[in-house]
Amino acid sequence: MAMIKIKTDRMQQLTELHGLSNAKAAEKIGISKQTFLRALEGEAVSARFVAGACLGFGIPFDSLFETQHGTIAA
Length: 74
Hints:
This protein is α+β, with helices and mostly antiparallel strands. 55% of the residues lie in helices and 14% in strands. A two-stranded antiparallel sheet has the order 1-2. α2 (22-29) crosses α3 (33-40). The radius of gyration is 12 Å and the shape is globular. InterPro entries: Lambda_DNA-bd_dom_sf.
């Protein structure tokens, strides 16, 4: 199963470039601060997160996200 994860270093660069706190970055994306922090810690992100980040920051998917393929436990 594929998971979408954020490129943490790129998101941190964007938030600094725009002068945003984690809370303000989350608001710009349309998610909670807790969800934003979990994504920065490596959790998979939702389609809402992806869409909000790409539209909110005006950047393409592959600039901010990567896909990881895992195995499904039996």
